[in-house]
Amino acid sequence: MENLKGIVVVVGNYGSGKTEVSINLAVNRKRAGIDVRIADLDLVNPYFRTREARKPLAELGIEVVVPAEKYLKADLPILSPVVAGLIRRPSQLTLIDAGGNDVGATVLAALGDSLRKKSVHMLQVVNPYRPFTETFEGCLKMRDEIEKTSKMTINGIIGNANMIDETAIEDIYNGYDFVKALSGESRLPLKFITAPATLLAEIDTGRFSCPVLPIERQLVPPWIKAAGLKK
Amino acid sequence: MGKILMKGNEAIGEAAIRAGCLNYFAYPITPQSEVAEYLSRRMPEVGGVFLQGESEVAVGYMLFGAAGCGARVLTTSSSPGISLMSEAISYISSAELPVVFVNIVRGGPGLGGILPSQADYFQATKGGGHGDYRLLVLAPSGVQEAVDMVMMAFPLAEKYRNPVMILGDGLIGQMMEPVEFSDHLKSEPSNKDDWATNGMDTRNRKERNLVKSLFLDAELLEEHNLVLKAKYDRMKQEEVRYEPYNLETDYRALVVSYGTMSRVCKTAIDNMKAEGIEVAMIRPQTLFPFPIDPIRAAAAKDGCQAAISIELSMGQMVEDVERSVQGKCPVHWHGKAGGEIPTPEEVVDVIKSLIK
Q: Model confidence over B43-90: pLDDT tens digits?
C-alpha cells in the first residue's frame, strides 16, 4: 500500500466493498502522514455510500468530495464539478470511489479526458463470497465490462474476502488463495487484501505475499455502532 | 452451496428462483431496483422470464394473467409502484389467484423519498385496493429471513389461493448479510388445476375453471365474500407468526416492533438489560394475521407498565397494538417517517420516559 500515490480509482461489482475499502484505505494512509482526499462517485447506489462516513473522515482531516448537501439523499446521477479539479490537482493520494459494476463505472468515462493525462491506479475490489464474482470467469467478465464502459484499464486487484459480521479466519485465508490465483490468471498484481481489524491479532499474515489493510467498519446499519476512528 | 454475502434485493431475487418462480414482472424503482437487475440476469440462465412492464399498472395485470394460467409469479416494487398495482391486487384477490408481491417500502406519501419506511403498513394490512380482501403479509427483519419468507410465500399463496405480500423496507433491500438457500422447490403449484385456465386435458373434472371477479347477483356476491372471509379467518387461526424477545423476564415494558426497526429495538433492549432494566419485545413476522393473542397476554403480565409500538411511520401498527392490548396496559407510539431510523439510544430514552 505504501506505493499507492496519486490517483487511485476503486472499482468492482456491486457490494464488493469498494466504499468500505476506500474509506479504510484513506484512513490508513492519512495515519501514515499522507495527505488524502476521497471522492464519492457512486451515482448508482442509493444507500451505504462514502458520504455516510464524511463526518469521521473530516475529523481525521480527510476531505470527502460529495454532491451538494441538498442532493445528498437523492438517487440522482450528480457529478460534483469539484471532482474534475481534484483530478487536475491531486493530493498525495486521491481516492475515487466509483459505483458498482459497469454501470457505476460509466461516470469514469465522463472524466476520461482529465484522467487520461495522469498516471492512475485503477484497482478492482473482489469479494469471492459475492454473487457473480465467486469464479475467476465472473471476476474477469466484471473486469472487461468495467474497462469497456469506463474506457480505462484496471491494473491491480484488492482482495476483500468477507462475510461482514460473520467473517471467519478461514474465510480470509480461502479468500486470499482465491485472489492470489486470480492475480496469476489475470496477470494483475494483487495490491493488498483486507481483514477485519478485530481479527488481525489471530491472523497469520506470514501466509500472504501482499500487505493487509485492516478494516474498521464504517458502513453499518443503525443498530450497530461504527468503529471509532483514532488519529 | 455454503453461505454467500448478498444484498436483500439480490437475495429476494435468488430466493424466488429457488422457490420455483420462473415468471417475474416488474418495473424499476428505488430502493427495490436491484431485484429487477438481478433477475434480468438470472432468469434467462434458468429458463425463466423477466418482463419489464410499461408501468406498474400493466405489471399488475401481467401478474393476474400469468397466475390465472397457473404460473408461479412474482413482482417486486416500492411504495408508489404498489399503489399503482392496487387495483389489480383487489381483482387478483377476488379471483382467488396466488401471486407474491414484495414491497421494499420507501418514505411517503406521494413520491416521498428513497430512504427506509414502514408507512405502507395500512396499505398492506388493511387494503389499498377496494373491497373486502386481505393479503397475507410477511415482514422480514433481515436478509436471511427475507429469503425464508420468499420461499414460504409461494406455497402460502397457493394454499390460500390468495396474494401474499412481503413487506420489507429500504434497508432490508439494500443491506448485505450472509445468507444460505435451501433446496429448490418444484416449479409448479401442486393445486393449480383448482383454478388455472390451462385447458381441460390435464384435469379429472368436467367443468371449466373461470377466472373472474364480477358477481352481479347479490346472493352470489354475498356467497363469494363469505368464501373469502372464511379464508381470512383460517389465516388468523393458522398463520400467525411472531418472534418473542426477552419475554421470559420480569419486564417493565413491552415493545412491539417489526422489520428493520425491531433490530434497533433489540439493541436498545440489550443495552437496557445491561443497566438492569428488563424490557420485552414481540416482533410480528406476520402483520396480517396480526399476533393479537400473544401481545394481549404479554401486555397483561404483572409489572408490565406500558406497551409501545415503535415503527417507521406516524403511527399505523399502534392501532393494531391497541386492538390487541385491549386496555390491559397503556399503549404508546414512537416513530419516524422521514427516512431516518431512530437510534438505539433514542429508543432507550423513549422507553425509560414511559416506565417507573
A: 999 999 999 999 999 999 999 999 999 999 999 999 999 999 999 999
What is the pLDDT at residue B203?
A: 65
Q: Which of A46, A129, A221 sits opposite B4 (nearest CB)?
A: A129
Judging contacts by C-beta atoms under 8 Å, the chain B residues touching residue A224 are 267
Q: How far is CA B214 from CA A44, B112, B217, in A?
A: 44, 35, 9
Q: How confident is the model at residue A108 (pLDDT cuts 50, 70, 90)?
A: confident
The span from the CA of B243 to the CA of B148, in Å, is 15
| Domains delineated in chain B | 4-198+227-237 (3.40.50.970), 243-354 (3.40.50.920)
**Cα A138 from Cα B3, distance rounded (Å):** 18
Strands B73-77 and B49-52: unpaired
Count of CB atoms situated within 10 Å of the CB of A154: 21
Residue whose C-alpha is closest to residue B118's, from B84, B74, B75, B78: B78
Q: Is the pLDDT of residue B353 over 60?
A: yes
pLDDT-based confidence at B202, cuts 50/70/90? low
- State which residue of chain B sits closest to A46, comparing Cα positions: B31
pLDDT recorded at residue B299: 98
Q: How far out from the chain centre does Cα A39 lie?
A: 11
Cell 433446496 appears where? B183
Instruction: Give B174's contacts in chain A (Cβ within 8 Å).
Output: 45-48
At residue B294, the 3 state secondary structure works out as helix
Q: How many whole angstroms separate alpha carbon A80 and alpha carbon A41? A: 9
A76 has pLDDT over 80: no
- B-chain CB neighbours of A161 within 8 Å are none
How far is it, in rounded angstroms, from Cα A44 to Cα A99?
6
Beta partners for residue A10, in sequence order: A97, A123
**B5·A75 Cβ contact <8 A:** no
Distance from chain centroid for Cα B142? 13
Q: In which order are the strands placed within the sheet that holds B242-245?
A: B242-245, B279-284, B253-256, B306-311, B331-335
Facing residue for A163 by CB, picked from B5, B114, B344: B5
Cα dist. B262→B121, B167, B342 in Å? Answer: 15, 14, 11
> What band does B333 get if pLDDT is binned at 50, 70 and 90?
very high
Q: At B307, is the secondary structure helix, strand, or coil? A: strand
Mind listing the domains of chain A with CATH numbers? 6-215 (3.40.50.300)
- List B77's β-bridge partners, or say none: B103
What was the ipTM of the complex prediction? Answer: 0.89
Which chain B residues are closer than 8 Å to A222 by Cβ?
171, 260, 263-264, 341-344
Strand partners of residue B286: B138
Q: How many CB pairs under 8 A join A and B?
A: 72
